Amino acid sequence: MKISIIIPTYNEEEYLPYLLESIKRQDFTDYEVIVADAHSTDKTREIAKSFGAKIVDGGLPSVGRNKGVEAAQGEFLLFLDADVIMTRGYLESALREFVEEGLGISISQIYPLSDNMFDIISHDFANFFMKYVETLKPHGAGCYGILTRKKLHEAVGGFDENLDFGEDTDYIEKIGYFTSFKVLRDATLFVSTRRTQEEGKTGIALKYAKSTWYQFTGRKISADQLNYHFGHSEGRKRILYGVCGEGMGHAIRSGVIIDHLLEKNDVTIFASDRAYQYLSRKYDDVYEIEGFNTVYEENEVQYRRTFTKNIKWVPLDLPHNIRLMYNVAKAFKPDLIISDFEFYSNILNKILRIPLVSLDNMHVITQCYTDVPEEFKRDRFRAASVVRSFIQRPRYYLITSYFFPPIKNPDKVKMFPPILREKVMELEPTIGDHILVYQTSDSNIKLLELLKEIDDEFIIYGFHKDEKIGNLTFKSFNEDEFFDDLASAQAVITNGGFSLISEALYLKKPIYSIPVKRQFEQILNAMYLDKLEYGEFHLELDRESIEKFLSNQQYYREKIQSGFKHDRNQAIFNSLDEIIEELT
Questions:
Q1: In order of start, what are the domains of the chain with their CATH numbers?
Q2: How far apart are CA 158 and CA 66, in angstroms?
């Protein structure tokens, strides 16, 4: 036997057939194929068997490759990933160049199975870089198609099974230290672009840059440092998490939930706008999608402009988002989808028929019986229509709220206190000498004029500037400083945003709420705030009502103290764990 081809696999039913077919079509036939499989749960083993491959038990890539060599009969060893395809004449060309050059170990150049310009340029650069540095030191940049002799493999003790990342680079360097290394010029492989699809262009570029830098400076890097995984840990479920990018509330809440999920599960995240910006700084597996945005003017929702703005982009956003999410899902193979009011996760659920769980505060509008004055019923109808269109028929609705109206369907709907960040729950509230003001729209100029007339100090966020004008101190957003100002505030003046209201209530801060007009979710939040006597709901601003609110803040503070209860997120964590176990 001339050459043994060794392929480590885990759930490679989508890619493995193409590689095995390309091997079968080679003119060179003095080879054997050994598939070292890490206990795949799909049809990988059946596919390998149908092509006549020898199958051995694998594990991590280093383990699989070593196990493959133990079963190998060839003089030469060729290590391939499952998502490559041999070009015509690859085996003959690779062996000829290897023998003629008197090499001890080599790797192959690569070309993408894609017509995307980024993929083409990045792979061309990778080939250039591999060849440019080959004379400096043996390296694993690329590491596709590692070819060596079996006696050299045995001489260095094979792949280091204690390494969970960079074991191929370590292997090449060990053999290359006392023999010749080269990037083959004629033998080339086609490679899939699934890594780019799964991790995004920025993510994959940063990982390769970081790993290559470590290699060339002689340092080891672990899989955890790069958030790299071969397959998935046994017993861990795989969850796709979609997050709405409107405002910051969805992102902040999702961050708390994702931190909990990652203790026992693998999580891949899709988010738009501000949610993507926030979550991509916290996690690696985050993909940016396009979302829907609301247009505000003078503290009022502009429905016509909102509709016009969003309908213009839907024909472009829909295919882009679904294509990205579908490709990532195919590779990730999720067991469950969780959506925090994210529209495209709902569509993916219908396409893939994977269980969907809704987790947000919005569905209190459709899944609970709420008392609403006649003047707001039209707004409620509009809001309910939007909420129903975003998420349809999930297996469960998990609703977070500081008010608990009757539930329509207790079998599917569960309600919990607001989800709060650990950072908020660790704050020690005091009663300082300022009132905190927060606005998500910088168009509420009337509020500022009124505050200037009131004999109190106001710290104001949301106007994107740092400035002091009389009794008004404007601050651009800094999370640590904002928390300090919130914890030491006498009271809070804000719109009807759920997250800040929840955080303020936890810190026992009375709230004066001016919800965005025609934004029913905020109106409902403010109505129940007033109903529970945690603060006041006002549609219009006036100096008298603000001064009256401030004079009554101790009364509201006592009501919050006796009425608002929180369990440090434990109930929703426990319920979510149970639901994941049930549905997966």
A1: 3-226 (3.90.550.10), 237-420+570-583 (3.40.50.2000), 426-563 (3.40.50.2000)
A2: 6
